[in-house]
Structure formats: structure tokens, C-alpha cells
Amino acid sequence: MEVCGHLNPDNLKNRPLTPIRILRGLMILLVFLSTAFMFLLYFSPVAALGLRLLSVHQSRRVISLIFGLWLALWPYLFETVNGTTVVFSGDSIPGEKRVLLIANHRTEVDWMYVWNIALRKGCLGYIKYVLKSSLMRLPIFGWGFHVLEFIPVERKREVDEPVLLQMLSSFKDPHEPLWLALFPEGTDFTEEKCKRSQKFAAEVGLPALSNVLLPKTRGFGVCLEVLHNSLDAVYDLTIAYKPRCPSFMDNVFGTDPSEVHIHVRRIPLKEIPDNEAESSAWLMDSFQLKDKLLSDFNAQGQFPNQRPGEELSLLKCIATFAVVISLTVLFIYLTLYSHSCFKVYAGLSGTYLSFATYYKFRPSPGCFREDTCKVKNQ
Whole-model pTM? Predict the structure, then answer.
């Protein structure tokens, strides 16, 4: 019941956790925490507050540029520094700007490898996730998730559906790029969760799946219901790893994975029913296909229709790293060693980000022209 490839006889070996990897991993953690913190402190008041009061569209455009620049560090880390090979198979992706992505959820870092696709298609800054609300409370990154308008859910239909409807309705503009990523299983895969899922499937007459959990269909249905007329396609991603499924720290220290395999099915919107019952059945069929793909992957070590990989540019990697580090060093210098007004700016920015994230506050044009600016409880 594995989907990470280690049953295959040609498996790659785990990379050892050497002192060099430990030191490099600690440096990487320091870089990502410091760059994320300083980018949020210095860019958020301008892009997510000041500019948003003038134009939500322009605010999102600027944020996507900044976010895409910072986020590009991660795919470069995986592939260039860690030496992880990303293997694509299935349908080619034409680089569309408005898509819904659905994927299996095998480990805590599946969502990070969607970035490797988006970077190649020039859409990295447009990614938004439907994610569990507890992640919004993470230090620093919770601020980022709020600024980037990720959609938090509690996994309770009566609570989540109004939030989904409200936030998705703000993404309906067909001219505004959007890569919306959804993991319909709702949680990462474990053997125990799989057994519970199979037991439930037997009770309600649904297929028993061995490599994925039964998908929760309502979230997918709401996304289609609200965005159906503005999306180009659905990208159905099936992800597997060699030699084993990685954790976040495996990525940081570069011990795993050696290979990430991503199988892509591109489905035009016209081929997906917009009726809730029929779209739920379509999603269930898609997860049965995922289950079969993952079983075959375990036996054969690859997905069908494997395509030649598109290598990331080392020059772009170095240039991106140089820009992000240079800006971060400048912001640190301004905060610690320059005029006191920068300390005040950083303090006020941190206070605003804490307030906005906790109260789910996002300003909009005309907000302060009313008697009161209401906090939006999304």
C-alpha cells in the first residue's frame, strides 16, 4: 500500500544526513525565514494595504510578482541544490493562466512540488491554496498565507462553505491569473487513515482505494460552481516519490526525495459536469484512476507517457537568489542600522500583519470612505 516507489527494485538510495547537509540545511532555514520575514514586513503595507485600497487587481498583480520571485527559491533548491529530479508524464501543459489543480496528498510537502510546474509555466506567483486553517497560525508564514489570499478551511462543511463561496467569488475575473490548488482528500495519506477510508467506502457502497483516500467532493464542487465560467481547465496531478515520501525537513537537508514523479491529466472545463452530483461522481472516478496509476507506479517505477524534463536555468537560479538576498540584506540594514523611521515602519507593519491575519481583514477600494471599515470575517 505504498505510493513512494520503494517497492520497486530499481529504487534510488536515501542520501545520508552528513554534517555538510546539516550545516547547509540550517543555512537554508535561516535564509528562507529571514527573506520571508523581511519581504512581508517591507512589501505588505505597500502592496497588500496601500495599493489594495486603490485597486485589488493591481495589488494582486504586484503581490504575485513579489511572491513569484521569492517562491522561485524553493524549486531551485529542490532541483539545483538538492539534486532532486522532477519527472513529468501524461499531458503537456500549455501554460494557461486560470486553472484548478487537484492532487493526491501523500505527504506534508506535496503542495510544494506544484511550484516546480508553475515555475516552468511562468505562473508561480498566481498559485493559491485551499489549506487547513491551523496553518494560518504559523509564525511568519501565516502572515504570508493571509496576504496571498490562501483559503483556510476547518474541514466542517457548515463553516467552510460560506468561506469558500465568499473568497472564490473575488477570484471570478477571467482576466486575472489564478492557479487554485486543492487536495480533495483533505489530509495527507497514512495507513491508518486509509483503513478508515476503506471501511467508510464499504459502508456507503463506494470503491475501496489503496493508495489514496476517498475525496471530499463538496469543496471541489464549490470551486467549479463559482469559477466554472472563468477557468481554462482542470489539471489532475498524481504525485509519487523515490525512494520514499519526504518530510519538510528532508527537503531542507536534501536527504529525500531523489525523484519526484508528477503525472498530469489536463481536462477542459467543458468535459467536467457542472451538476454537483455528476461532478462528485467525476471526482470519484478521477481518484480511482489515481489509485490505479499509483499501483502501477509501485510495480513499474514510473507513470505512463513519461516526457523529457525541462531543466531549470542555473543562471536564473543565481540571479533570483542574488536579488532576494540583496533586498533582504538591505531591509535588515535599514531596520537595524538606519534611521529610526524604518524601525517604526517595521514595527507598524508587523502589528498590522498580526492584526489582519488574526481578524481575516483585507481592505478594499472605498473601505475608508465609509463610516467604518468593517473587518471581514472570512
Answer: 0.91
The parent domain of residue 89 ranges over: 77-312
Average pLDDT of the chain? Answer: 90
Does the residue 19 lie in any domain?
A: no
Is residue 322 situated within a structural domain? no
Q: What CATH number is associated with residue 242?
A: 3.40.1130
* pLDDT tens profile 201-234: 999 999 999 999 999 999 999 999 999 889 999 9
> How far apart are alpha carbons 373 and 362 in whole angstroms?
10
pLDDT value at position 156?
84
Q: CA 358 to CA 31: how far, in whole Å? A: 26
Residues 198, 209 contacting (CB under 8 angstroms): yes
State the cell numbers at 306: 513519461
The number of distinct structural domains making up the chain is 1
User: Which three cell numbers, joined as nine digits, stand for 335?
Assistant: 531596520
Q: Are 266 and 133 in contact (CB under 8 A)?
A: no
CA distances from 121 to 96, 117, 126, 290 (A): 8, 7, 11, 24
- Any domain includes 353: no
Quote the CA–CA distance of 81 and 72 in Å, as a whole number.
Answer: 13
Whether residue 277 lies inside any domain: the answer is yes
Confidence of residue 2 (pLDDT cuts 50, 70, 90): very low
CA triple 182-6-102, angle to 5 deg:
10
Can you tell me the mean pLDDT for 236-246? 94
Which DSSP helix (H) or strand (E) runs through 14? none
The pLDDT tens digits of the residues spanning 359-377 come to 999 998 866 554 445 444 4
- SS3 assignment, position 270: helix
